[in-house]
Amino acid sequence: MVDIATRVWNHKWKIDPIVRSLIDTDFYKLLMCQSVRRYKPDVQVTFSLINRTKDVRLAELVDEGELREQLDHIRSLSLSRGESTWMRGNTFYGKRQMFTPDFMDWFEALRLPPYHLEVRDGQYELTFEGSWPEVMLWEIPALAVLMELRGRAVLNAMGRFELQVLYARAMTRIWEKIERLRVHPGLKIADFGTRRRHSFLWQDWCVQAMQEGLGESFTGTSNCLIAKNRDLEAIGTNAHELPMVYSALATNDEELARAPYEVLSDWHEEHDGNLHIILPDTYGTVGFLERAPGWLAGWTGMRIDSGDPVEGAETAIRWWESRGEDPREKLVIFSDGLDAGKIIELYERFRGRVRVSFGWGTMLTNDFGGLTEGNSLAPFSLVCKAVEANGRPTVKLSDNPRKAMGPEGEIARYKRVFGVGAQEEMEVVV
How much is the pLDDT for 426? Predict the structure, then answer.
């Protein structure tokens, strides 16, 4: 077991690069990347860092030279032989050779493309431009670097014993959550905490704690490197990125209305079983389901990632019933702003009505709120999104309008095309 406090105290030895592998990323990014290479390999995209928590002024906390050093290190990474063997030969979701030889040949030769970094009004403007399959792989490492550098900026001012006490308190907090969760039989939960983790070492510690504390209730981790190292299931399907880019490529309103379903049609051709998970909220869940083609009702389940999770799951249940499906055979994955109390509440409400699973993110791998003076390690909302595709802006509406993104005129157009009416705003915690 790594002594994290001592390692942090000594991290100036440079033994801990923040991102240490191209598979130190979420599993869904690799699945989507393979799909993008197959269906949209020549699309040119721009990804941009977006700090939703404006009072966390990253450029005043994180040294630019240190940030560039970490980003340059990521550009030097390539797939190791062991990592390639794991991807080529492992079984994911019951399927061997999930990643094709053609994709693996490409991935083994990949180096991430250049980045562009500027400082404006106390924030970093970090962008990535190029072909979609390459640029999309910057998202998770870019977020992990900035989250951890912000943490290191705070930790650098702390003494050795202060660090020991800090991590002891954080470990106790996580273990107490695990103790609350493990008394609920049948609960299924995975680690989804890579993108806003406190650090790689801390995420790895949290995963090990979940393994020991939850046993079979812990289903795996979204982080591919940790899954490989700890012999765990790699968990993940797809994300809002796919419909956002497909929609941006539409040349008229009719194509735009079809785009979210075109995404899932392509996905249907490539995957089956538990990878058939609908993410319906990119342009509003209710309208998406009302217009959904019949074959989508046969998919395995649905991920609830914005808005009121109770209403989202109830909407899914009503939709399956209206399409002649038995909700008890369907899987609902909750993944938005979860913590132990909310997980238990949702589990108790929906167990027996649907199959329930949870992707636990920031409040697992970065719950240091209140543990430092000035709450300087509290988690904050940082995202890295595709903002442009082939010169056209992307748009996300979400079931929570506070998560909406895109030019105002395009947001209005998307709301009209997708029939999105009044929406209830909810606090974006992380």
Answer: 67
Beta bridge partners of 301: 277, 331
- Smallest CA-to-CA distance from 151 within 382, 329, 317, 353 is with 382
Q: What local confidence, expressed as pLDDT, does residue 6 receive?
A: 87
Contact 365, 193 (CB under 8 A): yes
CB of 125 closer than 8 Å to CB of 117: yes
The CA-to-CA distance between both ends of the chain, in Å, stands at 29
On whether the CB atoms of residues 353 and 96 are closer than 8 A, the answer is no
Q: Of the candidates 25, 2, 9, which has an alpha carbon nearest to the alpha carbon of residue 83?
A: 25
HSE of 12, CA atoms in CB hemisphere, 13 A: 5
Q: Would you tell me how many other CB atoms lie within 10 Å of the CB of residue 427?
A: 8
Q: What is the pLDDT of residue 400?
A: 87
Residues 6 or more apart in contact with residue 57 via CB below 8 angstroms: 122, 123
| pLDDT tens readout for residues 39-55 | 999 999 999 999 989 99
Look at residues 288, 300, 372, 380 and name the one whose alpha carbon lies nearest to residue 337.
380
**Does residue 225 contact residue 24 with C-beta atoms inside 8 Å?**
yes
Q: Which residues of 176-214 are buried (b: 16+ CB within 10 A; e: fewer)?
A: ebbeebbeeeebbbbbbbbbbbbbbbbbbbbbebbbebb
Two tokens, residue 222: 């979204």
Q: What is the pTM of this model?
A: 0.95
Q: What is the DSSP secondary structure assignment for residue 14, as one 8-state letter?
A: S
Provide the sign of the torsion angle of the four alpha carbons 106, 107, 109, 112, taken in this order.
positive
Q: Could you write out the DSSP letters of every residue in 164-231? A: HHHHHHHHHHHHHHHHHHTTSTT--EEE--STT-S-HHHHHHHHHHHHHHHGGGEEEESBHHHHHHHT
Residue 272, both tokens: 């089956």
Residues with Cβ within 8 Å of residue 405, at least 6 apart in sequence: 50, 385, 387, 394, 395, 396
